[in-house]
């Protein structure tokens, strides 16, 4: 089976890391399996054309098997309301393709130093499932600004939205082998149910969903408390499910505990579409210098292979995904070709070549 993958380089380091992941994925899958279709989009394209997500790009994304994205956003390129143009590429794709589950693995690899001194590789291995199409982000572009005096953004939740992301989280926990600490399959609901009705609703719907998963433990943590637990007892976590804004915040904290955004992969999944990218930004300050780490985008590419394998019942892509992840783990464990964000001097192309050599 040939898979059409839209590759959306984007802005800043986006082209470097996206092209790196394309090279690794081609090496892992062999010729003729993945057909990459490069398309334009992002803040730079907006500056040139007035469109952050051109129609031809969106229709290609809608009909492709998956989307691989570098990063988008350039400083100072904003709309009149002050929000960033580049991020709009990403957010438009999320909302128009209904990518409701933003899956963010938080895993400490051998060879990567965690700031959490008491934890080593294998002891931090959980996944944050961030609801990705409502919550506070539902107000993007719809907030109120009255005479520059009063501004509001509403936090919106729907039963459908919470149910489907909760089911996704429980299904994911069912497929994993539990938290490193006790191997208990667990979904931790992260909210502020003690304060706001919306989060109490989020918690209540997650509890309803959990009734169908007797084999998965439900656990609760307020968003402020979980930031402490993620540092003090990260090995307790298996799957964490959270509303959009809270998920955005805790996923960066989680990434920081396992080496930083340079190793933070993400898969943004809907019923019919998947967008895969490193959870980092476009890092314009280091763009074009071949110093960005491609690890997050390469690992996102492995998530893409797994998602395609499940969706199309194609076991060969699971094997390819295993090989990509193993190649990354081996390069990190060996430690002689490390990107700058992990304390090394290796350039983006050197890390890419090291992963490709490992694959070969
Ligand atoms: C993320 C980013 C995005 C978000 C930006 C780039 C739109 O921070 O994916 O975590 O705010 O969700
Ligand atoms: Mn973020």
What sequence of helices (H) and strands (E) makes up the elements? EHEHHEHEEEEHEHEHEHEEHHH
What summary fits the major beta sheet?
10 strands, mixed
The helicity comes to 40-55%
CATH level-two architecture of the largest domain: 3-Layer(aba) Sandwich
Number of strands: 12
Number of domains: 2
- β-sheet strand percentage: 15-25%
Q: Give the cofactors and ligands.
A: 3-isopropylmalic acid, manganese (II) ion
* Mean pLDDT rating: 97
Give me the Rg, rounded: 20 Å
Principal-axis shape: globular
Query: What is the C-level CATH assignment of the largest domain?
Result: Alpha Beta
Q: The CATH topology of the largest domain is what?
A: Isopropylmalate Dehydrogenase
Total of helices? 11
Output the structural class: alpha/beta
Distance N to C terminus: 22 Å
According to CATH, the homologous superfamily of the largest domain is Isopropylmalate Dehydrogenase
Would you mind describing this structure in some detail?
- With 360 residues, the chain is an alpha/beta fold.
- It has 2 domains: 1-99 and 293-360, 3-Layer(aba) Sandwich (Isopropylmalate Dehydrogenase); 114-258, Isopropylmalate Dehydrogenase (3-Layer(aba) Sandwich), CATH 3.40.718.10.
- Helices cover 41% and strands 18% of the residues.
- It contains 11 helices and 12 strands.
- It has helices at residues 14-29, 43-49, 55-63, 85-96, 159-175, 197-210, 223-232, 244-256, 295-311, 315-334, 348-359; strands spanning 3-10, 34-38, 66-71, 101-107, 125-131, 144-146, 150-152, 186-191, 217-222, 239-242, 265-269, 274-278.
- It has a 10-stranded mixed sheet with strand order 2-1-3-12-11-4-5-10-8-9, sandwiched between helices. A two-stranded antiparallel ribbon has the order 6-7.
- A hairpin with a 3-residue loop joins strand 6 and strand 7.
- The mean pLDDT is 97.
- The site of manganese (II) ion has 2 residues, from helix 8.
């Amino acid at each position: 089976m040939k898979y059409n993958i839209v590759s959306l380089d984007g802005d800043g380091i986006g082209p470097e890391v996206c092209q790196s992941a394309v090279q690794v994925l081609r090496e892992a899958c062999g010729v003729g399996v993945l057909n990459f279709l490069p398309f334009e989009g992002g803040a730079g394209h907006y500056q040139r054309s007035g469109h952050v997500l051109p129609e031809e790009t969106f229709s290609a994304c809608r009909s492709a098997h998956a989307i691989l994205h570098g990063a988008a956003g350039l400083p100072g390129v904003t709309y009149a309301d002050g929000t960033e143009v580049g991020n709009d590429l990403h957010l438009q794709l999320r909302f128009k393709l209904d990518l409701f589950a933003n899956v963010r693995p938080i895993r400490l690899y051998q060879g990567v130093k965690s700031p959490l001194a008491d934890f080593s590789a294998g002891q931090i291995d959980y996944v944050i499932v961030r609801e990705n199409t409502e919550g506070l982000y539902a107000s993007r572009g719809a907030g109120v600004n009255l005479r520059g005096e009063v501004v509001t953004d509403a936090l919106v939740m729907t039963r459908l939205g919470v149910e489907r992301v909760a089911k996704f989280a429980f299904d994911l926990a069912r497929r994993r082998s539990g938290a490193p600490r006790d191997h208990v399959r667990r979904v931790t609901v992260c909210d502020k149910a003690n304060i706001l009705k919306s989060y109490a609703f989020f918690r209540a719907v997650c509890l309803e969903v959990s009734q169908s998963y007797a084999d998965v433990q439900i656990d609760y943590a307020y968003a402020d408390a979980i930031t402490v637990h993620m540092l003090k007892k990260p090995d307790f976590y298996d799957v964490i499910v959270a509303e959009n804004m809270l998920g955005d915040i805790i996923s960066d904290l989680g990434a920081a505990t396992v080496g930083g955004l340079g190793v933070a992969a993400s898969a943004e999944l809907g019923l019919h579409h998947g967008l895969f990218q490193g959870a980092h930004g476009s890092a314009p300050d280091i763009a074009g210098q071949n110093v960005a780490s491609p690890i997050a985008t390469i690992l996102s590419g492995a998530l893409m292979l797994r998602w395609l394998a499940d969706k199309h019942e194609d076991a060969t892509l699971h094997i390819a995904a295993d090989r990509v992840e193993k190649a990354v783990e081996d390069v990190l464990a060996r430690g002689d070709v490390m990107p700058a964000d992990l304390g090394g001097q290796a350039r983006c192309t050197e890390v890419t070549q090291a992963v490709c050599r490992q694959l070969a």
